[in-house]
Design a protein that fits this description.
By secondary structure, the protein is α/β, with parallel strands linked by helices. It contains 12 helices and 10 strands. Helix 1 packs across helix 3, helix 4 runs parallel beside helix 5 and helix 9 runs antiparallel to helix 12. The chain is globular, with a radius of gyration of 19 Å. It binds NADP nicotinamide-adenine-dinucleotide phosphate.
């Protein structure tokens, strides 16, 4: 099997930071430090950021934790993203939402993320969303420079179609494609995205593995009712909770998916770690697939 160009490796589950700060739990530095420490103790060492999270504030929250605990940096991997220009108070110059993967923007965004995160390197930089105006030759030059400077240790993309991925991968090696994958978002199983990762020996990262929390909501639609009904006997069979079953369903795929967890609760990270041990039967996998689609397999 092919292998990634980059030696950087991630923990089998990745902690998403999107909901830890202003866009969610609004953790204090002390609360965030306790959460990060708990994750590290569980062996979950990879943290997924983006410049825009918390309207450009969550990297700073995390940086404060690293400033207080500089010895943690070498024990973790930091992923961050660039390329979305978000309209918010912190960026008054952004007239409308747009994408920018120009070399100038990539370089400026990385320098800013390094400062906010209080670190001198990023383990994996991702282009957050495909920029229709991206120029692979220019991106290659910017990425090469950042790699040579030691500011980034690997490079990848997020939300790229297979064609967009191939087009960029020809100019600059990509380490991953971070995409939405869950029982509620199954496109990557069918459109070749996961197959492409396997072909290149790359591990995809799955964002919103719990459907952004929709699978646990009180007010649920027919699809989620079907999923919960199909899951009920499996929770008994595998002696697990619904969140663990949902992760086991992703982990069963041979693409070696790396789920990016969105929880802000340490006990749920702990529970997710236990899900790594569940070996889901093939038929149970399809049972959940059918519940999600509402159709029998062809
Ligand atoms: N590349 C991209 O374009 C992109 C887009 C979106 C997200 N992401 C990344 O992916 C990460 C995860 O996304 P996500 O937050 O949507 O993931 P998610 O894990 O699908 O959803 C997280 C939400 O579900 C809730 N939840 C999780 N387990 C639960 C349980 N057992 N019972 C009840 N509620 C539960 C969490 O609440 P609690 O905090 O209370 O547990 C949280 O509100 C983000 O942090 C970010 O790093 C990337």
């Amino acid at each position: 099997m092919a292998e990634s160009y980059y030696p950087v490796q991630f923990s089998p589950l990745i902690i998403g930071t999107m909901r830890l700060g202003k866009w969610g739990a609004q953790m204090t530095t002390e609360q965030l430090a306790a959460f990060v420490e708990g994750c590290l103790e569980l062996g979950i060492t990879s943290f997924d950021h983006a410049d825009i999270y918390g309207d450009y504030t969550t990297e700073t929250d995390f940086g404060k934790v690293l400033e207080a605990h500089p010895d943690w940096r070498s024990k973790m991997q930091i992923i961050t993203k660039c390329g979305i220009c978000r309209v918010c108070e912190n960026r008054p110059d952004h007239r409308i939402k747009s994408y920018d993967s120009s070399p100038e923007h990539i370089e400026a965004s990385v320098n800013n993320s390094l400062e906010q995160l209080a670190t001198n390197y990023i383990d994996c930089l991702l282009i957050h969303r495909p920029d229709f105006l991206m120029n692979p030759i220019e991106i290659e030059k910017a990425v090469q420079k950042l790699l040579e400077q030691g500011k980034i240790r690997s490079f990848g993309v997020s939300n790229f179609t297979t064609h967009q991925f191939d087009n960029l991968h020809k100019s600059v090696p990509l380490h991953t494609n971070q995409i939405e994958v869950s029982l509620l978002c199954r496109t990557a199983f069918e459109d070749g995205t996961l197959d492409q990762c396997m072909e290149y020996g790359l591990r995809p990262m799955a964002w919103s593995p719990m459907g952004g929390g929709k699978l646990f909501a009180e007010d649920i639609d027919a699809q989620i009712q079907r999923i919960r009904k199909a899951a009920a006997p499996m929770l008994v069979k595998y002696e697990c909770e619904l969140d663990q079953l949902l992760l086991a369903w992703l982990l069963r795929h041979p693409a070696r998916i790396l789920p990016v967890l969105g929880t802000s609760k340490l006990e749920r990270v702990q529970s997710a770690v236990q899900a790594l041990e569940i070996q889901l039967d093939r038929v149970d996998w399809y049972d959940l697939w059918q519940a999600a689609t509402g159709e029998t397999i062809a």
